[in-house]
């Protein structure tokens, strides 16, 4: 394997990676249930960590990671790569410009069509599976758009349970009430589905990319393909007052990256640049804070609790 892929080193276990003094930081892309354990162990071994989403199974686990980070002096970040891309910043700039009034409601969705294959980690409760866990981007889009930490309440959360395991949400449909920075109500609906029905039973909905629509007082703002904007995206603004529709894109630059970046940089490249900047003591253009990860995880918990499904087991 090492020779085939020309890796400098290969290891027999994750422990061995952590014990190698040559390793500065690790990227963790294990099943969700293992994120907490290995992020914790990595920091204990003096490594900084970039870990996939969701960073843990519960908010309490994220709090423990924060405590570990403070004690060890190591950094960890939840890999919400989409937030670090200039397209996300364009979206935010439009919403925060004040030109379209305040946000009234949002709708975010992420679906899998064709369905995720049987046996996939996302179907396994003990590994932190479930559509809301995997497609947690929808809550991330919503919280980012509104600029809110956690919802005031979950108005409803309806899970469609997997036929294999009633604890696993094959799909989740929920409505949440947030308050904006001025204390006004904003309503957010989300939909996740790991087994999305085909259009008219005939066509996989390949066009249904993870996206968010925001209704403000004066406009509808639609961010298409918010999760992987480097492949294709647009931010469309339909002005309710004039009936005019405009579309914008951003593959580089913007309010956080300025002159830095290339149009071909993926969300992952932007993420890595920010991460390495942080490790080298430079100010990252954008950073997913640990506190934000706690709020994100609390929001996931709120939705699960309201749906009647159990929280994922954690470590
Ligand atoms: N940012 C992004 O774009 C993406 C993020 N993700 C995230 O990455 C994580 C992993 O997803 P994905 O790569 O699709 O998962 P896979 O099932 O493809 O890979 C999981 C990996 O974890 C290892 N592993 C260790 N312990 C276990 C265990 N008990 N059961 C199963 N696998 C184990 C597997 O090892 P082995 O090979 O030895 O079996 C494998 O390398 C998830 O948190 C997911 O949310 C996933 C896809 C895209
Ligand atoms: O993070 C992710 O990004 C790509 C998706 O297809 C996947 O299910 C998810 O884990």
Describe the structure.
- The protein contains nine helices and eleven strands.
- Helix 2 packs parallel to helix 3 and helix 3 runs antiparallel to helix 9.
- The protein has an eight-stranded mixed β-sheet with strand order 5-6-7-4-8-9-10-11, covered by helices on one side.
- It is an alpha/beta fold and 315 residues long.
- The site of NADPH dihydro-nicotinamide-adenine-dinucleotide phosphate (NDP) has 12 residues, from loops.
Keywords:
315 residues; alpha/beta; eight-stranded mixed sheet; three-stranded parallel sheet; 9 helices; 11 strands; binds NADPH dihydro-nicotinamide-adenine-dinucleotide phosphate; D-xylose 1-dehydrogenase (NADP+) activity
- Hetero groups: NADPH dihydro-nicotinamide-adenine-dinucleotide phosphate, the ligand O=C1OC[C@@H](O)[C@H](O)[C@H]1O
Spatial separation of the terminal alpha carbons? 31 Å
Number of helical segments with 4 or more residues: 9
Q: How much of the polypeptide forms β-strand, as a percent range?
A: 15-25%
Q: Which whole number gives the mean pLDDT?
A: 97
Strand runs, count: 11
> Any idea what the radius of gyration is?
20 Å
Contiguous uncertain segments of 5+ residues: none
Query: Main sheet: which strands, in order across?
Result: 5-6-7-4-8-9-10-11
- Tell me the overall shape: globular
Element pattern in H and E? HEHEHEHEHHEEEEEEEHHH
Relative helix content: 25-40%
Main beta sheet, described? Answer: 8 strands, mixed
